[in-house]
């Protein structure tokens, strides 16, 4: 019987990004997905859950997702996995992007492990498949637990919307192709946590998302 994933959403940064504390209930081992900032709030959530963080996962390189990754890595002494290498220019320019958006203290982060299509990521006894889903950013990845019917999708797909594609490296056609070719086939019963806003399921978006008609 596979272990059950548990998740706590911690909205961070002025963009109210859904930083997610994701853990394996059997082992109480955890990952922090997309620590964009507000590390005091993230650390409070870790303490409240009573889990041990073993890694940081990044879905993509935008400031609201990755801006706090370097500081959290230093504070916890854990490796950073993801996103895909195509987001390296975004990660290398986090200090400048932070300054432009009024977010102080963002540092360059170089992941300990870049992720590619077909890779797997573990959290405790949980296993997530890596899907490379470019479009919102060139290196966006989605993490999916097929056993648990659960995915972290970053800014690829939202309830009722899709990721913006007007930022550097954005490509709307590529984004829609990523969603239709990689996310919809996961199955209607797969629930997901997006980078912003409420959670949803693949089935709900297949039926009602106006960008997927
Ligand atoms: Zn983004
Ligand atoms: Zn975002």
Automatic annotation (TrEMBL):
This protein's species is Methylobacterium aquaticum
Provide the Metallo-beta-lactamase domain boundaries.
16-196
What name has this protein been given in UniProt?
Zn-dependent hydrolases, including glyoxylases
Drop me one GO molecular function for this one. hydrolase activity
According to its UniProt record, which cofactors does this protein need? Zn(2+)
Recorded hits in InterPro entries, A to Z, give: MBL_Glyoxalase_II (IPR051453), Metallo-B-lactamas (IPR001279), RibonucZ/Hydroxyglut_hydro (IPR036866)
* Superkingdom assignment: Bacteria
Please indicate if the UniProt record lists Magnesium as a keyword: no
Among Pfam families, the record links this protein to: Lactamase_B
* This protein's UniProt keywords: Hydrolase, Metal-binding, Zinc
